[in-house]
Specification:
Blueprint (H helix, E strand, L loop, with lengths): L13 H9 L12 E5 L7 H7 L4 E5 L3 H14 L4 E4 L10 E7 L4 H8 L3 E11 L3 H6 L8 E7 L7 E7 L3
Parallel strand pairs: 1-2, 1-4, 2-3, 4-5
Antiparallel strand pairs: 5-7, 6-7
Length: 171
């Protein structure tokens, strides 16, 4: 697309490949005012999709690149989202504690754990949206740092299977 938020040729597949891919994670979030961070939010995937589907959540979109941050502010204003804030920073430099930390297409799982560990509140979870190579990533990761972890394969109606690693921090 013209802003470089998604790859070339991805515009035609935005619903199937990107937006619909974000919906399964909403089934793992409780109906509460939980604090949720979307790390490497980029085009707002999954953060804006989750915020629209679950307006009771308090969503923080964490994104270091200014052009993407500008887009996120525009999208929030256009969609009149009152439950969303934008933080321009790399995950490693953000201060805060979140009940849930979401990540989609950010980094391989070992690097993702390292860069987000400090953001996950005691008893909170990392929810990493992953593709078909998820099993390999799990084997290569330090998941023993977490109290528990599991792979969810979620099928919602006719949407593509969502593969989400849920790793719960002790607390």
């Amino acid at each position: 697309m013209e802003r470089g938020l998604i790859g070339p040729g991805e515009g035609e597949k935005i619903w199937q490949r990107h937006i619909e891919n974000c919906l399964p994670v909403t089934t793992l979030l409780p109906m509460s005012k939980s604090k949720v961070a979307d790390v490497g939010s980029g085009a707002g995937l999954p953060g804006i999709v989750v915020a629209l589907a679950r307006p009771e959540l308090r969503m923080s979109l964490i994104e270091p690149l200014q052009r993407r941050v500008d887009f996120l502010y525009e999208a929030i204003e256009e969609l009149e989202l009152e439950n969303v804030e934008v933080i321009r920073a790399r995950a490693e430099s953000v201060k805060g504690s979140y009940n849930y930390v979401l990540a989609r297409a950010v980094a391989p799982l070992p690097r993702l754990i390292e860069s987000t560990w400090h953001l996950i509140a005691p008893g909170g979870s990392l929810l990493a949206l992953k593709g078909e190579s998820v099993a390999r990533e799990m084997l290569a990761s330090e998941l023993k740092r977490f109290k528990s972890h599991r792979l969810h394969e979620i099928n919602l109606d006719d949407l593509p299977t969502g593969r989400i690693i849920e790793a719960v921090r002790a607390g």
